[in-house]
Amino acid sequence: MDPVLTLYIFMLAAVAGFEIIARVPVILHTPLMSGSNFIHGVVVVGAMIVLGSADSVLEKGIGFFAVALGAANAAGGYVVTERMLAMFRSKGEGK
Which residue intervals of 53-87 are DSSP H helices? Predict the structure, then answer.
């Protein structure tokens, strides 16, 4: 893939993501966080597939970094979602 085209796609995705997230009401952040955790799981699987076809040491290093960051982001998202949902539980409920 042409590097200029790749950079263009990345910049377009960054701008679109920023514009979408900036307009989300506060009340919807918890459900969206759960949805984004699913998407990060898909990203981790995709990064693992790409890592499996890496040839050079640089590609393997970048692939490993992508898998590690995606996994950390997904795990952290689940922790944050659980803490946010705990705020809405009554004092008498378990946990």
Answer: 57-86
Q: Coil, strand, or helix at residue 22?
A: helix
Q: Is 44 exposed, middle or buried (0-12, 13-18, 19+ CB in 10 A)?
A: buried
CB 24 within 8 A of CB 40: no
Sequence-separated (6 or more) residues with CB below 8 Å from residue 34? 77, 81
Residue carrying structure tokens 């890496």:
54
Distance of CA 75 to the CA centre of its chain: 10
Q: In the chain, what's the furthest Cα-to-Cα distance?
A: 58
Q: Report CA torsion sign: 69, 74, 77, 79.
A: negative
Give the model confidence (pLDDT) of 34-93 as tens digits.
677 777 788 888 889 888 988 999 989 988 998 998 888 888 877 877 887 787 777 766
Whether the pTM exceeds 0.85: the reply is no
